[in-house]
Task: inverse folding
């Protein structure tokens, strides 16, 4: 049973032009899905983490994440943008985004385990190659669904 | 080489586990053994023992925060790097270590 990865939170072929647009979008979606009680605070917290150190991790992937009082329940959002955009530093070009939003205090291990498994997969080149070859919400959902079910 | 690593990221979920995977994959590719301990939101996972610490060639500290139970590594050679750098460059980092330790 996993509520973290759903088809609703996978966005493919989006047309965002810059980091701001993506961060705002992520925060608004979290609020829309009742995972955040304040998109304003969520955006601030995403950017706060970005200022500490960039969440760009190579391979055109960025993993914006935050631990925020505005987050009610842990959530994962996946965005596959059509074009690469400049992330936090000028030499970072990303078009795949895995956003993890965590509540400030949280004790449900199941969600944490699923998120940690996801993060592990993102460190493996096979998985990244697989992800890069997929183009629909459905395929991506199928790929990620298995992670939660172990 | 016998490598050890500790990955610790403040959120405790994202970089921690990405770095762990990346290091494990890179080490395996380059023919080394590695044990990666994750310190994160789930507490300490895959904890490195005192014995393992004593037998290691080097400890990679991939962290943005201090680590727990640091006393295990008092006498171990260490290299400390920002965790996001490790995620991006795990293979290059291990190769650099090979050079520095005169392994290859």
Result:
């Amino acid at each position: 049973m996993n509520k973290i990865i759903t088809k609703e939170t996978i966005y493919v072929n989006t047309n965002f032009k810059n980091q701001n647009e993506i961060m705002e979008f992520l925060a608004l979606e979290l609020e829309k899905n009742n995972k955040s009680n304040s998109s304003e605070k969520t955006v601030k917290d995403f950017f706060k983490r970005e200022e500490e150190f960039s969440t760009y991790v190579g391979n055109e992937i960025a993993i914006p994440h935050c631990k925020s009082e505005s987050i009610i329940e842990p959530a994962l959002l996946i965005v596959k943008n059509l074009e690469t955009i400049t992330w936090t530093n000028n030499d970072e070009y990303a078009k795949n985004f895995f956003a993890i939003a965590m509540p400030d205090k949280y004790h449900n291990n199941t969600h944490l385990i699923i998120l940690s498994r996801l993060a592990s997969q993102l460190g493996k080149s096979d998985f990244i190659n697989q992800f890069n070859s997929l183009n629909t919400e459905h395929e991506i959902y199928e790929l990620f669904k298995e992670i939660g079910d172990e | 080489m016998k490598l050890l690593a500790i990955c610790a990221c403040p959120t405790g979920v994202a970089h921690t586990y990405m770095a762990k995977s990346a290091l494990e994959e890179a080490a395996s590719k380059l023919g080394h053994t590695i044990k990666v301990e994750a310190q994160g939101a789930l507490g300490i996972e895959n904890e490195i023992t005192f014995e393992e610490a004593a037998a290691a060639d080097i400890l990679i500290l991939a962290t943005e925060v201090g680590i727990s139970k640091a006393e295990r590594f008092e006498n171990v050679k260490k290299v400390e790097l920002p965790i996001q750098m490790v995620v991006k460059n795990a293979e290059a980092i291990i190769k650099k270590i090979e050079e520095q330790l005169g392994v290859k």
